[in-house]
Amino acid sequence: MEIKERVVVITGGGSGIGAAMARRFAEEGAKEIIVVDIDDDASRSTADDIDGEAFMLDVTDEEATSELFRQIEANHGRIDILCLNAGIPTDGSVDTPNKDWQRTWEVNVMAHVYATRHALPGMLERGEGYILTTASAAGLLTNIGAAPYSVTKHAAVALAEWLSVTYGSRGIKVSCLCPMFVDTPMLDAFAGQTDEMRDWVEGLAIDPDDVADAVVEGITKEKFLILPHPIVGEYFQRKALDYDRWIKGMQDLNDQMTTS
């Protein structure tokens, strides 16, 4: 799908990858870019930079999401490209408090369900639409020391895959963005890790603008998996070819990274 003249909605668009995508879509000539974020000031700042529109939204509030999408469709006639980019990192194991598990589930998974539920009918009626899910390499592999994040990002990938399988023949294109480490505030989640872990993360981190470039290429080519870090694809293939060997390697990496 070409981005030019399209109406684009980006959740989590106030900063990081979302803001970079907004700028890049503007360069591609999108007709309208609607920047959505729980941080109202951030969404307005991004929108002001690209002459777009800004809205404050808690993506876990389905009623508010539905109302916002109705407003966007009333004002612009349609949503062509829906970027489900809002997300939160959560560290910890299975003993992470239930409230943190639930919040991570709501933001990283259910918010995608809510937004898709209310954008999809219009897309299906027109026989055309694009859904971009920002998951993570953690959704294809795993994230050491972050069970809630890893589990919910796996679910985000699964939802994107299901949407593509179910609606692809009806004109709905789906991409799943799975970056590894990106130089955004989310990297702060690794501040409490070992020096070795922090050095590894920082060495692999790329700029949000690089991710946005990969997104534009992926949407233009209508690729399901968008991998700004090519090495993620290599790891994913190794995992599929020999799951047990991959698990053993990750166990070794876990021991290295979590031992001071």
Oligomer state equals single chain
CATH superfamily: NAD(P)-binding Rossmann-like Domain
Mean pLDDT: 93
Low-confidence stretches: none
State the share of residues found in helices, binned by percent.
Answer: 40-55%
Q: Could you spell the SSE succession in H and E letters?
A: EHEHEHEHEHEHHEHH
- CATH top-level class: Alpha Beta
Q: What is the approximate shape?
A: globular
CA(first)-CA(last) distance: 48 Å
Radius of gyration: 18 Å
Q: How many DSSP helices?
A: 9
Describe the fold and architecture.
By secondary structure, the chain is α/β, with parallel strands linked by helices. The chain has one domain (7-233): 3-Layer(aba) Sandwich (Rossmann fold). The protein is 54% helix and 13% strand. It has nine helices and seven strands; from the N terminus they run E-H-E-H-E-H-E-H-E-H-E-H-H-E-H-H. It has helices at 16-27, 40-50, 62-76, 98-126, 147-167, 195-204, 208-221, 230-241, 243-258; strands at 7-11, 32-37, 53-56, 81-84, 129-134, 172-177, 225-226. It has a seven-stranded parallel β-sheet, sandwiched between helices. Helix 1 runs parallel beside helix 2, helix 1 (16-27) packs across helix 7 (208-221) and helix 4 (98-126) runs parallel beside helix 5. The protein is globular, with a radius of gyration of 18 Å. The mean pLDDT is 93.
